[in-house]
Amino acid sequence: MSNAAFADGKFPVHHSSFIVDGMACELCESDGGELIWRDEQCRVVCVEEPGYPGFCRAIWNAHVAEMSDLNEGERARLMRVVFELEAGLRDLLRPDKINLASLGNAVPHLHWHVIPRFRGDPHFPSPIWSAPLRQPAAAQPDLAPFKKALAKRLSRL
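^ that's the sequence the OP posted. Answer follows.
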């Protein structure tokens, strides 16, 4: 995790809550996955999704729904994080392809999916949200060294 902290020197465990259609926003209430790195504006988490080692999300900390809700500097910051995350995944995991997606239909909190794709993954070459073509591999790789290296890389931003 980054050494950057808020003014009081601490990171919040939970983010300011936001209510959407009577329900709390899950990305305001929690990190949204295993926290890899965070600064004052955004964070990167690893998502445990069988068959998709290294599936990450870059999440804007404050509750906004769209990229156009950010000012130009904030948009540039988030995209620098997304691009560095993509480059890190490519260098560290050597996938066949990287998928980038910012949807937010189910969770209207600005976040980017950064998904390493491998020819043998359950959906390749189709999108991961389509019908699976095969079962995920039974054995999942140990991602601890990858997560540590990715956090170090992101801390240089």
